[in-house]
Design brief:
heterodimer, A: 9 helices, 24% strand, globular, B: 234 residues, MetI-like fold, 10 helices, 81% helix
Chain lengths: 243, 234
């Protein structure tokens, strides 16, 4: 925890009129959004709405074709304040512990310190007993928990999760959700995409509803689920296929 | 038929009797080709990784060039290295012509494109899978190179083996730059060529058998190690 509290929070992350197009196809259109410290934000919407691209733009993996994206408090130097967990985690061909240590190694942490943090994070995701196993030999659910430990080890101010449970069974999904809640409890801002309404209900403090590359509703979760104002969101909640 | 039958039994006798001439030739062959493979690997892996990860003008042309150079004719490589190392050549002062070192250089030049081209393909495929994750963790493309090389090590071993096979099998380049000097630069392939033309079929055949057995053994060993390691690491 120490590292995180030593750094001032760069949040909120602000997107101002952000558009993204690839190959002439518009994927995001004039998205304006502020992601502030605190609530767990769930980006909800049907498949193909642009949720993943929105997350990648936020994380800096894609550069917006228009518009601006910036931290409210720019951090000069030091490690990046954000981390991401992907739908399919990429495990490096080395031990579980070495996977968790990798990002810390890039930051130049000493071996002893890396090991200590990695083991603590593996403990937190319930995988300390597999620390010396080759990471690629683990099950999909275990790999996703390693990916969470790896992201957590970096003490990010904000964690992006792109449909982290989309290819997991219910038991593994439950564990991943518990870890996400634990990270949030420890002070990390959570921004997660899902197309799973049940998951959104379980995890969201606020909902950003994306439809065809636009944010059509941004509301507290309770209000959203009680009755969304956007017709597209209402249809989605009713389980209708998007038009 | 009678002749070749005799040649074969004499060849086997030479191998079984541990003929010192034969083993000296085998040892030098291994030394030269293994040295070339080590050198070529050190040169080719960074080249292959750079071609896989970096976009720069002329990259496509370079990739095509390396792919094309996989089929370099050994005699041409021998000729070029000969010109470089000959007394009047730019590297003539090194005095390496007709030494094992010259043969190592020629074989290195011959197999760098093979290892580089195969490594590029392997690392590029891995990069497609890794790129976002690596950037997310804070690794620049440059910093990702050693990670990718390490993570594709089992596949890269196959590329290195292809280089070793090519190096130990070629005859043209080492013949030109080594000179096939008895006891100094005579290796298996040049000896086979010479002994065959002299009509000394038993020695030629004995060397041929050893050469093939060695290549098969090295490949079997490497693939065995690879299979075990892959099963362990996934």
């Amino acid at each position: 925890m120490s590292a995180m509290h030593a750094r001032p929070s760069p949040l909120p992350l602000r997107l101002d009129g952000v558009s993204f197009a690839a190959g002439g196809v518009s994927i995001l259109e004039r998205v304006t959004l502020s992601l502030g410290a605190g609530p767990r934000t769930v980006i909800l919407g049907p498949n193909g709405a642009g949720k993943s691209v929105l997350l990648r733009v936020c994380h800096g993996l894609l550069r917006p074709t228009q518009g601006k994206i910036a931290w409210a408090h720019e951090v000069r130097g030091g490690p990046r304040p954000d981390a991401m967990v992907f739908q399919r985690p990429v495990m490096l061909r080395r031990s579980v512990r070495a996977n968790v240590e990798y990002g810390l190694k890039l930051q130049g942490l000493a071996r002893g310190e890396r090991r200590r943090i990695a083991l603590a994070r593996l403990e937190a995701v319930g995988l300390a007993h597999l620390a010396d196993r080759p990471a690629r030999r683990l099950s999909g659910g275990e790999q996703q928990r390693v990916a969470l430990a790896r992201a957590w080890a970096l003490e990010p101010a904000i964690l992006f999760l792109d449909e982290p449970t989309a290819s997991l069974d219910p038991a593994a999904t439950r564990m991943v959700e518990a870890i996400v809640l634990a990270m949030h409890g420890a002070g990390t801002k959570i921004v997660m995409t899902t197309h799973d309404l049940g998951q959104a209900r379980r995890l969201a403090d606020e909902i950003v509803f994306v439809h065809r590359g636009r944010i059509v509703e941004h509301a507290p979760a309770a209000k959203f689920f009680a009755g969304p104002s956007a017709p597209e969101a209402a249809a989605f909640i009713r389980g209708e296929l998007p038009v | 038929m009678q002749d070749s039958g005799n040649a074969l039994s004499t060849a086997l006798a030479l191998i079984a009797g541990a003929d010192p001439d034969l083993w000296r030739i085998v040892a030098l062959s291994l030394l030269v080709s293994l040295s070339a493979v080590v050198l070529a690997t050190l040169i080719a892996l960074p080249i292959g990784a750079a071609l896989a990860l970096f976009a720069f003008p002329g990259r496509g042309a370079l990739v095509t060039l390396f792919n094309g150079l996989m089929g370099l004719p050994p005699v041409v490589v021998g000729l070029v290295v000969y010109l470089l190392l000959s007394r009047a050549g730019p590297l003539g002062d090194w005095g390496l012509l007709f030494t094992p070192a010259a043969m190592v250089i020629a074989q290195t030049v011959l197999i760098v494109p093979i290892i580089a081209a195969l490594a590029r393909q392997t690392i590029e495929d891995a990069w497609r899978e890794y790129a976002e994750q690596m950037r997310s963790l804070g690794a620049t493309p440059g910093r990702s190179i050693p990670t990718l090389i390490w993570d594709t090590r089992f596949s890269l071993a196959t590329a290195v083996l292809a280089g070793l096979g090519r190096a130990s099998a070629e005859v043209g380049a080492v013949m030109i730059v080594g000179g096939n000097i008895d006891g100094l630069t005579r290796v298996m392939t040049t000896a086979i060529a010479l002994e065959t033309s002299k009509g000394n079929l038993p020695l030629a055949l004995g060397l041929g058998i050893v050469l093939i057995v060695l290549i098969v053994l090295i490949n079997a060993l490497a693939h065995g190690v690879k299979a075990v390691a892959e099963a362990r690491h996934g």
